[in-house]
Amino acid sequence: MDSPTENHIGDQHSTAGGSAALAARPTGFMATATASPSTPATDDGAVLPSSLTNRMAPLYHADRDAHFVYRNDSFNDIAAATFPEFRSAERREQPNTLVPDQLREIFDRLNAGEPEIKLRQTIEIDGELRHFRSTHFRTFENNLPTGYGGVYTDVTLEAEAVMQSARAESRFQDVIRSASDWVWETDDYLNLTYVSNRIAEALEMAPSAVIGRHLFTLGEFEDIPARPDLSASLMPFRGRVFLMPDKHGQTRRISMTGVAVFDESSGAFVGYRGTGTDVTRQHEVEAHAHQTQQVLEESLVELRERNMELDRALEEARSAARAKTDFLGKMSHELRTPLNAIIGFAEMSIQQSFGALNSRYLGYFRDIHGAAYHLLNIINDILDTVNIDSETVSVSPRAMRLAEVVTQAKSIIAVRAEQGGIDIGAVDVSDHWMILADPGRTRQILVNLLNNAIKFTEAEGSIGIDVRMTDSKYIEFTVWDTGIGIAADEQDRIFESFHQVGSDIMSEPSEGTGLGLTISRQLAQLMGGEISVESHPGQGARFTVRLPRAEEETPAIGDAAL
What residues contact 358, with CB distance under 8 A and at least 6 apart? Predict the structure, then answer.
């Protein structure tokens, strides 16, 4: 095989001067074994200073037996990062070191006839990734092979520039793909040289179908009688509407923006570059909005007149509501006065304060007393409802023992429960449990719920109260019964005014006004609480009152079955 003469330098009697030549050109090398592996010598035998050799490009020279004859520190850094056997300082300084297997494989390829081998490598040196381009070749003297050489060029900046360019191109393509606009470019004759894929959505045709076509073969600008000479004006334009027919013959409205492009070196005009946005749908929406606006303007006068009529009707309704409220309030007060007298007279007669009465007249007076008392309760309910609706009812929450109000409510309904043959059971509430509520209104809620429980529970049934502390802010007490229950579709209506619970279940209309639950819920809400119900037909009902908790004397949290 002919030896490549470009790799032949020096003569057979030269010293390590070839090492310096290797640093200067990657085509030939000659060195004797007298030179240190990391200290090259000049042609006259002078040793080059390390400060100079360390500034050289990474290079090495090996003899025909694949032993290093010379290598500079820059190459040693690469070898230590690439070849495990060169990571020790002792091995790096050892002369005539056998080259690594990877380099011997390169030498074999050179011996097989390859004139030189170029490689690209990414190597981590001192924690930094660096990119190298290396050239490996055979060395000759007098056309006789003397060994092998290699030079490494640090191309890190070049590689990073290439990668940055690739990333920039990738970002540009990502932006183009994700943007709603399509991008276009023309040459100086306004022939399209580039269009992005978004044009396929606007015109329903591939970009390749329009490349090379003149811009004005695709359409024309709106409101311009003749085609503008863009090549002559070289003026930028923005938001100009370009009318383009799609493949179905439908005209698309494209908002075009463009700027002239000039050659950086000569300054000559080379074309236009810009974007286009399909505003067809926007134009249709705006036209429809304009028509709609006209209709709305025509309707505005009518709406104003209707509003005036509604305002008058609302004021009339408010006046009627105020009149109803005033009437009910006055009537309630007017009825309570004689009823109180009737109740008082009946009670004195029952107590026989005016003299002895036979059993027949005692029965009459008891009936009068019961009917009058019942009518008074109805009037009180109506008056409470009127006051709540007119927002004149007041509550005075204060810290109070729940046990007190439960005991009072039980004593009020105890006789009625006993007469109906209904078991209340023992009520045991901790004296330490405190609520923040109005005592009278809380008692009223409890009595209403207990009366309802008695009303809808048959003889030998049971009613009761469960009390539990749900968290640090509220206490719940539940009035339950084993009565007829409430259907699911009735559970929202039972809190409406004058709605009778179970009116379509019981054979006879139930007593009362249908205001008790309405008043109870409104009072609970005024005190910062709520009332809810759980029930199934034939399985009784559970009405739960949730009221704010006050500070306790003993911070006990738990459940109490009452």
Answer: none
pLDDT at 226: 58
Neighbours of 160 (CB within 10 A): 12
Position 166 in a domain: no
CA dist list (Å): 105 to 102, 151, 383: 5, 17, 108
Backbone φ and ψ for 481, nearest 5 degrees, come out as -150, 170
Tokens at 65, concatenated: 């037996």
Say how far apart CA 8 and CA 21 lie, in whole Å.
Answer: 11
Q: What is the dihedral of CA 111, 112, 113, 114, to 10 degrees?
A: -90
The reply to whether 244 and 317 lie within a common domain is no
Q: Look at residues 231, 186, 188, 189 and name the one whose alpha carbon lies nearest to residue 211.
A: 186
In this structure, are 254 and 317 located in the same domain?
no
The residues with which 145 forms a beta bridge, in sequence order, are 140
Q: Are 490 and 501 in contact (CB under 8 A)?
A: yes
**Same domain as 102, residue 144:** yes
Residue 243 is encoded by which pair of tokens?
């009318």
Query: What is the domain extent for residue 415?
Result: 398-561
Environment class of 502 (CB within 10 Å of its CB; exposed 0-12, middle 13-18, buried 19+): buried
CATH of the domain at 501: 3.30.565.10
Does residue 527 lie in a domain region? yes
Alpha-carbon span 146 to 61, nearest angstrom: 10
For residue 83, which of 26, 18, 35, 150 has the smallest C-alpha distance?
Answer: 150
* Alpha carbons within 13 A on the beta-carbon side of 373: 11
Q: In a 3-state reduction of DSSP, which class is residue 47? A: strand
pLDDT digits 0-9 by tens, 440-452:
899 989 988 998 8
pLDDT tens digits, residue range 142-190? 889 999 999 999 998 888 888 887 777 666 666 655 555 788 899 988 8
In a domain, 460, yes or no: yes
| Cα separation, 165 vs 154, whole angstroms | 19
CATH number, position 319: 1.10.287
Number of structural domains in the chain: 4
In the listed set 114, 131, 160, which residue is the last one of a domain according to the structure? 160
Of 225-229, 299-303, 472-476, 542-546, where does mean pLDDT reach its minimum? Answer: 225-229
Instruction: For residue 75, give the nearest of 112, 29, 34 by alpha carbon.
Output: 29
Phi and psi of 335, rounded to 5°?
-75, -30
Domain boundary among 392, 418, 444: 392
**Nearest-angstrom CA–CA distance, 397 and 19:** 102
**Domain co-membership, 54 together with 148:** yes
Report the length, in residues, of the chain.
Answer: 562
The answer to whether 483 and 458 are in contact (CB under 8 A) is yes
Alpha helices in 4-46 (DSSP H): 17-24
222 located within any domain: yes
Query: Predicted confidence band at 36 (pLDDT cuts at 50, 70, 90)?
Result: very low
Q: Rounded to whole angstroms, how far apart are CA atoms 171 and 164?
A: 10
